[in-house]
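Lab notebook page, bench 4
Experiment: in silico fold of construct C2
Operator: M.H.
Input chain length: 147 residues
Purpose: comparison with the prior construct
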Amino acid sequence: MPVTEEMGNLWDLHHQGHWIAITTNGILKSDGRAVMGAGLAKQAAGRFLDLPRVLGTHIRTCGNTPMAFPGMRIITLPTKHHFRDASDIGLIQESLRQVQGLLTQNQIDRLYCPRPGCGLGQLTWQQVRAAIAPVVDYRCIFLHPIG
């Protein structure tokens, strides 16, 4: 299935009432909160102050897997095992497979996503797009950032 792409700003779309994906990693701080210290994860943690604690609990009990936060209209999308490492293309694929189930379970018909693993994750969009094409459907829309 072709990967759906649009131009846009993730936070503008979230402000308009849409669900968005936030890229994350699987590391916890000593207090049990998820490490969300850079990029989109840091932005989300700044907007939703309870997110690192709740995500930390999820990681501790379920592992480094996606989670839906209906009250925040956010789905976490693990792309890294450790925040210091480059993104893992296999983890991105598996995370997006699981996201498909969360979309169905939460009756979400559209999820706006960053280009996972690109930027701080050190992967190219060409690598990622080819790898995720078999696992995503029309409900996941990947944004090319504006500006």
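Observations: The beta strands are 4-7, 19-24, 68-69, 74-78, 111-113, 140-144. Residues 4-144 form a domain with the Leucine Aminopeptidase, subunit E; domain 1 fold (CATH 3.40.220.10).
Next step: discuss at group meeting.
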